[in-house]
């Protein structure tokens, strides 16, 4: 029982398993309505062991994530592409939660911008 508690505490106290190769918030700028836009967030595995992206959740259906479901070796990079559909006019700010293996807490990414008519 003590070993289980110790292991749980170690996983909780461990730092992030990834380093982002840029900002975790991206300003998409002015978008034209109904012309989707995509941004690629790049990360590096700094955990010292292979890891995978377990899941990616967005704050609404207007934002679609794509990622490879293959293990990422230590010190290698991976990409999460986030596409915003640009259907609704006006300002938007969307949250994307990324769940990595070997890390309990989700990494949070943001995209934001403005959608206008052509």
Summarize the structure.
The protein is mainly β and 118 residues long.
Descriptive notes:
The protein has 118 residues and is mainly β. It has one helix at 2-13, and strands at 18-20, 25-32, 37-45, 53-58, 63-67, 77-84, 90-100, 107-116.
Spell out the blueprint of helices and strands:
Elements (H helix, E strand, L loop, with lengths): L1 H12 L4 E3 L4 E8 L4 E9 L7 E6 L4 E5 L9 E8 L5 E11 L6 E10 L2
Parallel strand pairs: 2-8
Antiparallel strand pairs: 1-3, 3-6, 4-7, 5-6, 7-8
Rg calculated over all Cα atoms:
17 Å
Distance between the termini: 63 Å
Mean pLDDT across the residues is 90
What share of residues is helical? Answer: 10-25%
Based on Cα principal axes, name the global outline.
elongated
Characterize the main sheet: 4 strands, antiparallel
Strand content: over 45%
Question: What structural class do the secondary elements suggest?
Answer: mainly beta
Strand order of the largest sheet: 1-3-6-5
> What low-confidence regions span 5 or more consecutive residues with pLDDT below 50?
3-13
């Amino acid at each position: 029982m003590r070993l289980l508690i110790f292991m749980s505490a170690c996983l909780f106290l461990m730092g992030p398993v990834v380093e982002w190769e840029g900002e975790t918030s991206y300003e998409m700028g002015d978008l034209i309505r109904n012309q989707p836009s995509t941004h690629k967030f790049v990360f590096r595995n700094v955990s010292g062991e292979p890891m995978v992206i377990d899941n990616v959740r967005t704050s609404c259906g207007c934002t679609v994530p794509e990622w490879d479901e293959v293990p990422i070796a230590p010190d290698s990079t991976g990409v999460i592409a986030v596409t915003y559909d640009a259907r609704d006019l006006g300002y938007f700010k969307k949250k994307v939660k990324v769940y990595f293996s070997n890390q309990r807490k989700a990494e949070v990414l943001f995209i934001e911008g403005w959608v206008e008519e052509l």
